Structure formats: C-alpha cells, structure tokens
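Progress against Task 2.4 (sequence-to-structure conversion) is shown through the following example record, which the project officer requested during the mid-term review.
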Amino acid sequence: MVETASSVRRQSLLLEAYSPTVEQEGSKSEVGSYGSLMASSVECAGKLSSRLIAVTDEDCYGMSQQEVQQELAVDQYTLGLVGPDQEWAGTVADGGTIRTYTPPGCWGPMITPDFRGGHEVTRPIRVEGASVGDAVALHIRDVEVTSMATSTGSMAEREEAFGDDPFVDHRCPECGTTWPESVVEGTGEDAIKCAECGANASSFGFEYGYTVAFDDDHTVGITLDEDSAHELATDAAEVMDIPENSRQHPILLYEPGEMPGTLGRLRPFIGNVGTTPPVTIPDSHNAGDFGQFLVGADHDYGIETAADLEDRTDGHMDVPQVRAGATLICPVAVDGAGVYVGDLHANQGDGELSLHTTDVSGTVTMDVEVIEGLELDGPVLLPNEEDLPFISQPYSDDEREAGQNLAEQHGVELEEDMGPIQVIGSGATVNDATQNAFDRATGLLEMSEGEVRSRCTFTGGVQIGRLPGVVQLDLLAPMDVLEDRGIAHLVRKQYGL
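Structure tokens generated for the chain above:
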C-alpha cells in the first residue's frame, strides 16, 4: 500500500505517545494532478506501521485500559454511539496528553448502514480523578488533517432505507435487515450494497454534492469536476486516509462533481469533542438540535420527551473556533469523564448552512485538566483571542487607561479585571439554543438572566455555531466570579491576563 505523506505524519504523531525517541525519516511529495494527492513511499513507513500495530494489539490494549498514562494515543472507535456502556480506550493522567487519530464524521458513517449514529468517534478516555460534578478542561494543542480530499454537500434522504431517523435507524429497503452489513461495488451513489441481498442500502445521497482536493499543506482546497472526482473515487480509502480500525465507507466513493474550480480556505477544527453522557445515544445526536430526532423515535435509542435530552453533554457542536489553541471546558457526567474526539472538519463557515462540511481524517493533540467541583450543564469555550468578536476581546492598556479616566470623571469604580468566555447552548432552534445558553450562563456565573443579557449585549453577543440550534454566547465576565468558579486561571492563561 502506498503511504501518503499525511499518513506518515499521523503515524509519527501517534508513536510519540509510546516512544518519544522514534524519529521519522524524511519523505517527499510532488505537486501534480492525482499524483499530488499521493506521496512517494518512504523507507520508514513499514517500521512506523509495525510499531503502531504492536502498541495497539488487542491484548496489550486491554491490559493497559486501567493503567494511568501520562500520554495516551487512541485509534479505536465506537460504531456511532457515546455512552457509559462503550468500551474505554484507556486512562490518562490529570494533566496528561491525549493524542487521537480519527476517521471522518458525517459523510462516511452516514452512508454505512450498520452505524448507529452519524459519526465515528473515539472510544471514551478515562481521566484520572474526574468525578461526576467536576469538569475537565481540554487544552487543544494541535489539529492536523491527514485526508488529501473529501466529498460533501447538501443531503438527500432515501426514505425506504431507514425507519424514523436516517442517521440512526438504518434498514435495507429490499430485505428489511436492520443495520445491515454492507459491501462496496464500484463507485457512485449506488455503490453501497446490502451484504444480504445486494440492494442499495445507504440512507443518504447528495441533493447537491462536490468533491474537494487539498494542497499538500492543507491551506486551501479546490472543488473538482466529475472526471477528477471519479479518479479519486477509485482509491477513496487511501486518498481520505481512512484509519485501519475504521468501519465506515469513504464518501469519495460517491464522486460528486458540482461547483468545480471553486477555491476555499482551510482552517481545521473538531466538530464533535467532549465528555460521555450518562445515557447511551448516537454520537451525532449529542446536542440539543440533532437530539430532537430521538424524541418519540421507535428504535433502540429513542426517548419519550425533549426533557430527556437534558442528559446530553453537547459534544457535537460544529463550532469552528474549537481548534488548535482553544480550551474547551466540559461537564463530567460519568466518573472518569469519558473524553471522546471525532468529526474533524477541514473548514466550515459559521452556521454550517448545508448541514455538512468537509469531513476529514486527522489527528488531535490535547492536554487534559480536571477542575474539581465545577458542575456544568454544557461546554464553556475559551477560543483563541483572534477568534473572539471585537466587543469581547480583552481590554488593551490604552482602553484600560481611558476607562480609568472615564470612571474617575463620573465617580464610579472601574471593573477592569474581566475575562472573555463563551457559553455553548443548543436546542431545537437558534432561539431555543440561545435561551439554553442564557440558562447555563446564569448558573455558571450565579447572575440573574437580566444581568447576563445585559453583559452579553454590552460586552458580547451570540454567534451561530450550527443551524438549526447550536450557539456561542459571548461576554466579558468579572474575574472574581470566575475565580469563585475555579476557572479564572484558565482564562488568565488563555488571554495573558
């Protein structure tokens, strides 16, 4: 098998967690047409592959699950579920480092009918010392794309191929097998066949689809025509760098060719990252908007009312600011936290307006920190300073000086020790998500909703992460309040305060 340059980098990254002294020998890639997507073979590839396989051997893997590790590499995944019944990937120390290598979310799992959810996230990672009622801070150090192309677009449902939910409730339209095993025959939207009867078993196609090839540095991508998309489809798994342990079919097989020649900027981020909820649900539905699909659904993961969604931990955010350099503070709803990662995106505009974007394989490196006694209802994000809205950025020295002069002029005391935070909210609609964010912010900051609304209006605002219902509520919060909640040190470190 030909090794891509990105897959060699990925293997090297994972190996650092087990053998920091391993050095990767040089590799070169050429820029061209299809050849630009495949790097030349490198002498060390076999060594890296064998070392990776050795450390992820099932016996070794099982024995190390309870052992607390300072660095933990994970390349094992669930079949589209998050919850307390999923097998643990291992245990990382409080203050330790997690390295993950994940396959694409959404497109891929969505067209693979034995998946129970719309993503393929890692098995949950136990964090030493994390207990229910605590929080864990995930300091995201690096997000690297390893795919060299992907396909995406607006989806079209094949109603005969599912029951209540096309992301979850798969069934063969011919033989009626639920969550059927499937095989690939050829390329195109008819390529995913039921292993039992041979019928097209995928529940999704494209309403409008396009294929994107990335440059070698993953700084830009360009959309391809039908001929080029077909060429990539013939080697879909390799071009997308689908991990060995992944069970999804690569979306490049669908070979869509709309919108050719369009150039887009890339800035990778994590679409689904967080902590395990106390009940088992489809990974893509761990949010207040996608979770609505579960209400009244007649399948294994259906719930009775929307109130049952209060168990969610909102890992599926699709917020582009959840990228390298950001810190995400997550609730602990099961002992050990159960951190999981998946659904990496190469880029995305605010709102993810076609509901899906450039799903890719990739690696994530992040450090974990337990925040004892910080009981959260959902995530709190500390994005990179450059990602903050103008109105929510930390005060400059000149602004503080001007503020002090103005305060003295009017006889008030300047509240100058303030820090930016973003409270994530989710719900059936943007309005519901915003109210959810207000509810969470009032609990976190122990303020009235009126004060939160006022502070958000004067020093913040609301941003749309994903339509129909994920938002970020921005505000500058008093540091003494954040000190009481145990997160002031995170805010000070993030913004140099």
